[in-house]
Amino acid sequence: MHYSSHNKLTEKPVMQATDWINAAINVVIGGLLGVAVEGLARLITTALWPLAVVIPLLAVVLFFCMTLFDTVVDWFFPSGIRPARKPHMSRRLPLARRLSLPVGLVIGVVLAKLDVANSVIGWFL
Fold first, then answer.
1. Sign of the alpha-carbon dihedral angle for 96, 100, 102, 105
2. Domain range spanning residue 44?
3. Which of 3, 33, 75, 125 is the most exposed place for a label (fewest CB within 10 A)?
4. DSSP letter string, 48-113
5. CA-based nearest residue to 97, from 7, 16, 4, 1
């Protein structure tokens, strides 16, 4: 852990290489989520508004089924490996890393509003 001073609880943490990588990934994920949120918001204003309700509900059901399946598999086939102990004091995340997902979400919504999102998403596909 690298901190800018000796007092670890009050001083702000210094960005490390992994923090920059995680922040960049969070911006991309936030951008894609922003495009999806804007698409659902645009879908609400059309005659297909029930899809804007059904799609998030299906995502919640899928998440619940995956969690249930993982729990059942872990119950029937325990690995025998104990989870690692949690440290008492975890490292505080830098501000840039904490704000990267909301910033990406805003960027995604703005790109979708400007109709630039389709060409940007085309780069990823």
1. positive
2. 28-77+97-124
3. 125
4. THHHHHHHHHHHHHHHHHHHHHHHHHHHHS---PPPPPPPSSPPPPPHHHHHHHHHHHHHHHHHHH
5. 16
Pick the closest to residue 122 from 106, 111, 109 (CA basis).
111
Per-residue pLDDT of the chain (125 residues; tens, 9 = 90+): 454 445 555 667 788 888 899 999 999 999 989 988 898 888 888 888 888 889 889 999 999 999 999 999 988 888 777 777 776 666 788 888 899 999 999 999 998 888 887 776 777 66
Is residue 49 included in any domain, yes or no?
A: yes
pTM: 0.68
Provide the domain count of the chain: 1
Q: Which two three-digit tokens encode residue 45?
A: 């204003």
User: Is position 113 within any domain?
Assistant: yes
36 in a structural domain: yes
User: What is the Cα–Cα distance from 72 to 59, expressed in whole angstroms?
Assistant: 20
